[in-house]
Amino acid sequence: MSHDHPNHHHDHGSHGAGRTLWLALALTLGFAAVEAVAGWWAGSLALLGDAGHMLTDAAALGIGAVAARLSALGPTRRLSYGWKRAELVGALVNVLFMYAVVVLVAWSALRRLGNPVDVDASAVILVGSLGLGINLLVAWLLHRGEQTLNTQGALLHVMGDLLGSLAAVTAGVIIWATGWLPIDPLLSLFVCALIVVSSTRLLLNALNVVMAGVPRGLDLAEIQAAMQDAHPSIADVHHVHVWSVSSETIALSAHVEMQTMNDWPAVLAAIRHRLHQAFDIDHPTLQPEVAAVDRDCARC
């Protein structure tokens, strides 16, 4: 049996994601402090509540940054793939954190529908607009960086807060223009619904990795057919399994039936090239078999 594990390193992606997350954390914490001071000065519970939301975002970004740092560590005797799946844990924690935030915001919004609270519209518009700009910057930084489950989880939090800032500005404008207070909790409930949809999508992606499912965008039958067509000496390919080790690493194992073992080095190189170029699979484990011997063994 021959195993092929190319020694690829993806630490540059993890380090890049970590730097982006730390920068996003600094911006988020800085604005949370500004918003808390502004809320206290203006006597606005809405701004103080949004500052608390920003603090939860900062905690999520911190979790993501630590997970990105851990995922960059190399293999150990106990963890043959290293800490690459630390990003998965970070993503799951972020999703659960976001569900908790949604429950708290929705509960507060429902209470305010029955008992409206006075809001300083001008302060909400001013600070909400500043928050909108900060969140757009942080979202841009995360979006242009390395796309891992970790950064997706962090981006989910930032997008939730971006929508919250947009809703705050909209509510402030409507309250300033019309004095209609229920618009604030109504927009909060709408934002909660959007966050639940995005959080659930990220949760399903993370669970697919836990279940060693075929990564999104890949088709098992297509991969098997491409491997069989990689070289004329390949008689059949079976027992194909494809799974994600992390957002940056896709692994594959398969049995390859050969017409003759003399062609195995060329077949191995051809399959590796096809998998990497067509599917970005860079950790294949391949077992060669001689087709005629296998059929004789089956008859025996």
List the strand order in the largest sheet: 1-2-3
Question: Roughly how much helix do the residues carry, as a percent range?
Answer: 55-70%
Shape call: elongated
The poorly predicted ranges are 1-14, 294-300
Describe the structure in your own words.
It contains 9 helices and 3 strands, in the order αααααααββαβα. With about 300 residues, it is mostly helical. A 3-stranded mixed β-sheet has the order 1-2-3. Helix 1 packs antiparallel against helix 4, helix 2 (about 45-70) packs antiparallel against helix 5 (about 150-180) and helix 4 packs antiparallel against helix 5. The radius of gyration is 26 Å and the shape is elongated.
List the helices and strands and how they pair.
Blueprint: H1 11-42, H2 45-71, H3 86-114, H4 121-144, H5 149-178, H6 183-210, H7 220-228, E1 234-246, E2 249-258, H8 264-279, E3 283-290, H9 291-299
Parallel strand pairs: 2-3
Antiparallel strand pairs: 1-2
Helix pairs in contact: 1-2, 1-4, 2-3, 2-5, 3-5, 3-6, 4-5, 5-6, 7-8
Provide keyphrases for this structure.
single chain, 300 residues, mainly alpha, three-stranded mixed β-sheet, 9 helices, 3 strands
